[in-house]
Amino acid sequence: MTENRTEGAGRIAVGMSGGLDSSAVASLLAEQGREVVGLTLHMWKEGSRCCSIEDVERAKYVCEALGIRHFVINAEELFDKTIVEPFIEQYVEGLTPSPCIKCNQYIKFGPLLERAMDLGCTRLATGHYVRTEQKEDGWHLYQAKDKSKDQSYFLHRLSQEQLSKSVFPLGTWTKDEIKAYAVEKALPVSFRSESQDLCFITGAGHAEFLERMRPGLSQEGPIVDEQGNELGKHTGYYRYTIGQRKGLGVASSEPLYVKNTDADTNTVTLGARATVMDQQMKVHKVLWMHGPSHSTFDCRVRIRYRHEGAQATVNVTGDNAVEVIFKEPQFAITPGQAAVFYDGEEVLGGGWIGREC
What we know:
The structure is a single chain. By secondary structure, this protein is an alpha/beta fold. It contains eight helices and 17 strands. It has three domains: 174 residues, 3-Layer(aba) Sandwich (Rossmann fold); 53 residues, SH3 type barrels, CATH 2.30.30.280; 77 residues, Translation factors (Elongation Factor Tu (Ef-tu), domain 3, Beta Barrel). Strand 5 and strand 6 form a beta hairpin. Helix 3 runs antiparallel to helix 4. The longest helix has 17 residues. The N terminus is likely disordered.
């Protein structure tokens, strides 16, 4: 149904982290006879999983092994201003942000794509597991063949211009097939475990990162039930996520989950699982890949990366706002996370989940 453009002549850039996926992309394109140029973003200090100086060195090593040129783009200041600072501020406000989505929109398909064009490349290829197809009305984005690695959720805010200049060769591959390919071609990469942590946050976790970046943020506050009865104490509301069950630090005769975190009162509210289920939500700053043809329509909606999606009715309430009513209640709808809309495997668009239900 869909195709991933890897054929043709001309110079093509590959966004490289030194990891398995991007290295495989560079190798695949070089095998097709393309003139491949490796580009690596240096966005963070030591310890990152994809954008530190260590990753730059790994990418450089892979490019040398493949016999292709390698360039480094320093985006530390932009990354800090556009991704890290908003991430911190959203957590301080009591939201749960999704910075990887913004990084793709503003960094990886921003300065990286611009540098590729400056070098005379026809396209920028990345190791994302998604598929694209050009139709009469523009470019369409689809889930990858390997649903366990599909990254369409993270790319739902890309513009038509960004999609038109991008190539995703791994969309029709599975992760196991890419691993086998890397072994067959003796690519100089290690099969590192894929952490779900953010690239700029290491083993200590997001709470320690926030406290280091915002000294004095940690303040003791109450953990309460829905009636306001105090169950215990915490040392920072930002340490808790809606739907969290483990590590609550309270004793209870029944399982309790985080229902709400209130930055203004420094309060964490717990409740039974049923109280953390919601059937509707409001989504703002929606971007459509292709605008809906009706003000009300049904589709599948994902409310977090590992959420398979649930059927819902979407009511368009403004130019960039919708109300979503699920067919069945959903667990832990979290303000600050992205809601992404799908028609089958196709991405329709997405936006940010608001505090209002």
